[in-house]
């Protein structure tokens, strides 16, 4: 029980810092995009986008994630894409008997995803000064992971395995300029795989695209 509370404390501390950063970022992005209008791309090449996510959590658990993405807007409000993933995971023992123990692992993989914008621009639907909209997200992810990630100091048999995961969720997309955008997503891992690296739902993800 003490272990779970300790991990929960670090998770909540990082979530608060992430939330404050996201709020400030979206407010700044909204000011930049005040004079922009949502328009369909004029050229076929404008339908393609790329970007990614950088994730960092430091504490009892240290996790670094690099997720490059690329995709295409099939229609102005529907996109599909692919992503790669590299992650580094390190966890220190927190009980007296484990205080000098440490576990680390690397995670590799990729995913395919689709996104829908039911409301691409709030200011065009409602009388509010927000140049962003709602985004719906679904994703199938396949990663190569150590079986012990979910319980490093438990009785799991070690060794790598391919793990299939399904993530669904929603969020807010803030446009910045003609093509660039910032996506803030809340995702739920619904496959309930025992070797999932996502230990808690929801998952906060911030993605930048150009």
Walk me through this protein's architecture.
- This protein has 210 residues and is α+β, with helices and mostly antiparallel strands.
- The protein has one domain: Porin (Beta Barrel).
- It is 17% helix and 51% strand.
- The longest helix has 31 residues, at 2-32.
Number of strands: 8
Shape: elongated
**Rg, Å, rounded:** 19 Å
Instruction: Tell me the count of domains.
Output: 1
Discrete helix count: 2
The largest sheet is: 8 strands, antiparallel, barrel
From the coordinates shown, what is the CATH architecture?
Beta Barrel
Give me the CATH fold name.
Porin
Sheet/helix structural class? alpha+beta
Cα separation of the termini = 44 Å
State the helicity in percent bands. 10-25%
Query: Unreliable runs, pLDDT <50, ≥5 residues?
Result: 1-13, 28-36
Summarize the structure.
The chain is an alpha+beta fold and 210 residues long. The protein has helices at residues 2-32, 122-125, and strands at 48-57, 61-75, 78-92, 102-119, 132-146, 160-176, 180-189, 203-209.
Defining key terms:
about 50% strand, alpha+beta, elongated, about 210 residues, eight-stranded antiparallel beta barrel, Porin
């Amino acid at each position: 029980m003490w272990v779970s509370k300790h991990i929960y404390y670090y998770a909540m501390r990082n979530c608060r810092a992430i939330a404050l950063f996201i709020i400030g970022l979206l407010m700044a992005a909204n000011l930049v995009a005040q004079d922009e209008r949502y328009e369909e791309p004029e050229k076929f090449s404008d339908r393609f986008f790329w970007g990614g996510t950088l994730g960092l959590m430091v504490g009892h658990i240290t996790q670094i994630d690099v997720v490059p993405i690329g995709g295409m807007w099939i229609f102005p409000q529907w996109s599909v894409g692919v992503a790669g993933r590299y992650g580094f995971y390190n966890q220190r023992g927190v009980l007296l008997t484990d205080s000098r123990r440490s576990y680390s692992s690397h995670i590799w993989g990729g995913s395919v995803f689709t996104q829908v914008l039911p409301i691409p621009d709030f200011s065009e639907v409602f009388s509010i000064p927000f140049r962003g909209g709602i985004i719906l997200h679904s994703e199938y992810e396949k990663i190569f992971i150590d079986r012990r990630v979910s319980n490093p100091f438990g009785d799991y048999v070690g060794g790598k395995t391919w793990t299939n995961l399904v993530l669904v969720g929603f969020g807010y997309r803030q446009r910045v300029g003609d093509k660039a955008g910032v996506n803030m997503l809340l995702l739920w891992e619904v496959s309930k795989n025992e070797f999932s690296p996502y230990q808690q739902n929801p998952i906060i993800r911030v993605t930048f695209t150009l």
